[in-house]
Amino acid sequence: MSDEYLWDGCGTPDAEVERLEKLLGRFRPAVRGFEFPAAATSPLHTHSRRAQWWRVAASFVLLLGSIWLMRALTGRAAWTIAGLEGSPRIDGRAAERNEIWKIGQWLETDTASRVQLHVDGLGEIEVGPNARLELLQANATQQQIRLERGTIQATVTAPPYVFLVRTPGAYAMDMGCAYTLQVTDAGVSILRVTVGWVDLQHGFRQSLVPAGAAAESRPGIGPGAPYFEDSNERFREALETLNFNVEDSQARAEALTILLAEARPRDAFTLLNLFRRVDAEDRGRLYDRLAVLLPPPAGVTRQNAVDGDDMSGWWDKLGLGHAKKGLKGPPRIEE
Amino acid sequence: MPANHSMGDFSQDAQLVQAARGGDRAAFGELYERYERMVHGVLLAHVPYAEVDDLLQDVFLIALRRLESLREPTAFAGWLLVIARNRANDFHRRPRAAEELREPASIADRDEQEARAALAAIQALPEAYRETLTLRLVEGMSGPEIAARTGLTPASVRVNLHRGMKQLREKLGKSANHE
């Protein structure tokens, strides 16, 4: 059955889709338009001074309570500066060995500085030169930092999804691993995983990156499909177009031709990741090349690929294993 | 509507975010109009229908108050999605009186019954399919529009719609056979 009607409402209507649209349309929002708070004089100043004082007082009490509760329930999960070179700074002043890096503080290194951070029960982070990062959250169940620029090397022993790094292009969620994460001045991030898996997410986009692989993320777009860094340069350039040039269909078609021609058996991993990022015709082309590189498992046909069906049987054949799943699943992301 | 224009949309978002930060209510109102259906659909994929309108207002109120903290104005859509999903998760963590969770005792209207059953079947699908199908079938957004608003590639949206619809047909078929 054609999915054209399901896709954009054009073509021959699919009776079941049409019926569901009519039935479910009743759940659409009843009232349109945002109700600005009554006292608002500007969108960002929405409270009276008195109300703000109450909010500040209440927040202070809540903060004290939260600190007490966090310490009582989870113990301390402090980020300690275990080692440093050069003159790294915290909030503009010189950082010191054994100093605790606190929530809300910015840690910066210049061209000649490095910092080693240690957290009991989490692992080690090495911060390279020219980096700028902020600590957003630090407790036994959630550790979160913002990496604005520069490179960090993380060796994480905490359970999956406890440690999260926020970059301009994606959230990097540790799943029990070691990796390097670099953010350029343009906000592009490059993740290289050396042990285990990392889950990259932004909006609806997700890439699971295993040891030996890398993935790039861009602001406003999110993570691209991961790849092995020993793939050839033409393959990686073509992949970059497919990942991030979402507007030029001609360039994407040409890039796919190059990518398929240059793909080695090991690159089947990248090709499988692309199934969710290309259209039906290109999924057929991906299938044809993949079937040569890594014969499909029983029951997975070209039509399955074109239809966008589940390819998990093929994933199992890659022999990469599976990411560890945390008991608590992906964390609540800091907004 | 062209299929691929998400980057253009995101740069328009950035302009609206900057204007809203400067106190321009109309700019924030436009952001609301652009993303109301997306946020409504994502919430509806996770929480009971009766709760969605309040949570929708909450999500935009939070966005309004925290707009200054958004470091990448082009990332407004992704950031708003995070707020919406967090509010939906908070809803499930919040202790509630038992009656709040109960479905209405009896619904006389057969269409209403069917609609609720279909919505419940969508809410039981995997997250990616659930959200995309809600945006398509409830909010009436087309596949290209979903791609433009969410930052997903059109190909991903198409796959989610196809797989989600396939699973939904199976679920609805099974429940019809049991009646």
Q: How does this structure look, described?
A:
The complex is a heterodimer of chains A (335) and B (179). Chain A is of the alpha+beta class. Chain A folds into 3 domains: 33-75; 76-224, Jelly Rolls; 232-323, no CATH class. In chain A, 30% of the residues lie in helices and 27% in strands. Chain A has 9 helices and 18 strands. Chain A has helices spanning 4-8, 15-24, 49-74, 233-244, 249-262, 268-274, 280-293, 302-307, 312-317; strands at 79-85, 89-90, 93-94, 100-101, 106-108, 114-119, 123-127, 132-138, 143-156, 163-166, 171-174, 178-183, 189-195, 197-202, 205-210, 213-218, 222-223, 227-228. Chain A has an 18-stranded mixed β-sheet that branches. In chain A, helix 4 (233-244) runs antiparallel to helix 5. The longest helix of chain A has 26 residues, at 49-74. The model of chain A is unreliable at 39-51 (pLDDT under 50). Chain B is mainly alpha-helical and 179 residues long. Chain B has a single domain (6-178), classed as Rna Polymerase Sigma Factor, Chain: A (Orthogonal Bundle), CATH 1.10.1740. Chain B contains 9 helices and no strands. In chain B, helix 2 packs across helix 7 (127-138). The longest helix of chain B has 25 residues, at 154-178. The radius of gyration of chain B is 18 Å and the shape is globular. Chain B starts with 5 loop residues before the first helix and ends with a helix. Mean pLDDT of chain B is 81; it is low at 1-6 and 97-105. The chains are: A alpha+beta (335), B mainly alpha (179). At the A-B interface, helix 1, helix 2 and helix 7 of A face helix 1, helix 2, helix 3, helix 4 and helix 6 of B.
Set down the secondary structure blueprint.
The complex is a heterodimer of chains A (335) and B (179).
Chain A: H1 4-8, H2 15-24, H3 49-74, E1 79-85, E2 89-90, E3 93-94, E4 100-101, E5 106-108, E6 114-119, E7 123-127, E8 132-138, E9 143-156, E10 163-166, E11 171-174, E12 178-183, E13 189-195, E14 197-202, E15 205-210, E16 213-218, E17 222-223, E18 227-228, H4 233-244, H5 249-262, H6 268-274, H7 280-293, H8 302-307, H9 312-317
Chain B: H1 6-21, H2 25-44, H3 49-66, H4 76-93, H5 98-101, H6 110-123, H7 127-138, H8 143-150, H9 154-178
